Amino acid sequence: MSRTRAASPMSPMSPMSPMSSMSSRRPAPDVSLPGTGVRRGFTLIELLISMVLGVVILAASANFATATLRSSRANDLRDGLNRDARFVGMSISRDVQDGGISIESSQGFGSIATRGDTVAALSTPYIPNEAEMYSMVVPVDTASLLPLGMGNCGVNCIDVTDPNVVPFQLRPGDVAMLQVQNVQRLIVLSAVTTPVAGRRRLVFSNADSLFVWPAGLSGGLRLTRFGVGVQRMNVTAWFRNGSDSTLRRSEIFLADGSLRDGVAARGVEAFTTRLQFTNGVERTQANGVDADTTNDYNRIVSVRVRARMRVERLDRSVNGGAPLFRQYEWRITPRNLIFERNRVL
Questions:
Q1: What angle do CA 102, 96, 86 make, to 5 degrees?
Q2: Given CB 3.0 to 4.6 Å as the disulfide criterion, which of 74, 84, 200, 264 pairs with 317?
């Protein structure tokens, strides 16, 4: 039998040997000491440098974000102003282009008119065909001219025939053309009666002008027994209200003759209109009764509109916080006037 040799009490591998005991009690290396090869923190200098760099980067980022936001607000305000101007220009052009539909301009009366800060266009509506012309009922007297300032049924009152072929097209609040031989005037109807014996009574306001056109029986106009008719009209006007610097558009009147308008643009500091005529003359308005024949209504070629508009609100990012203004200009040549002139020529 083999014998196993007992381990010596002092064997190096013995658990109780002094070397083993010393190894188990040896302290872990101090990593905070130099030369250990391991670092678990930053020095105060490193922390200070990191903080300074962070503050610099943060400040630069904040300045960039602020500048971007300021530039974006400024662009929004400028773009908003340009959008408003484009809307105004397109809308005025559309309305003025309608001027002259089924209306032949004469020397003293035309479908386009301006005066200072107002431009207006007149056209004949189609409902669905061209609006009916209603003839005045011939008075029973034999006088060729009716009394001054009188209709055939009283002051500001005209009886017209109602053929009853199509529904009657005149209503209270409508603008109508009063045709007296070769003279045109505008009237605003305040009352329209029901038909009696094939006629209707039209009562109109006593205003002597409508926008820039003569109205009613003003200026000594006298009705004739024949050749008097009334026809519904469309009239659209643009004008500036100086009290609140708004540009307004109107195409509706109330039965009492008062105007109902709406705000088309705000911040309009100036709004001027001028007419251009065939020979290159430009005037603030047409006049067919003066000695100057170059500014008659039948010589109108185009309309020039200028507007000075400001941004919607103030902002320090735009013009240093002061109001920003821009000038706009539009030139409109109504195709109906060109067609009419070419037809006459």
A1: 150
A2: 74
Which pTM was predicted? 0.74
How many of the other CB atoms lie within 10 Å of CB of 191?
A: 12
| Tokens encoding 333 | 């040549």
Structure tokens that stand for 237 in this block: 């006007």
pLDDT tens per residue, range 271-300: 999 999 998 899 999 998 889 999 999 999
Q: What is the domain partition of the chain in residue ranges?
A: 77-140+147-344
Dihedral Cα 9, 14, 19, 20, nearest 10 deg: -140
**Which residues of the chain are under the pLDDT cut of 70?**
1-40, 64-73, 142, 255-257, 315, 317-319, 340-345
Question: What pLDDT does residue 337 have?
Answer: 82
* Cβ atoms of 263 and 247 closer than 8 Å: yes
How confident is the model over 230-256, as pLDDT tens digits?
Answer: 999 999 999 999 999 999 999 887 766
Nearest Cα neighbor of 325 from 340, 306, 339, 305 is 306
Which residue type occupies 338? I
pLDDT of residue 1: 45
Identity (one letter) of the amino acid at 341?
R
Q: Which residues contact 198 (CB under 8 A, 6 or more apart)?
A: 161, 162, 163, 164
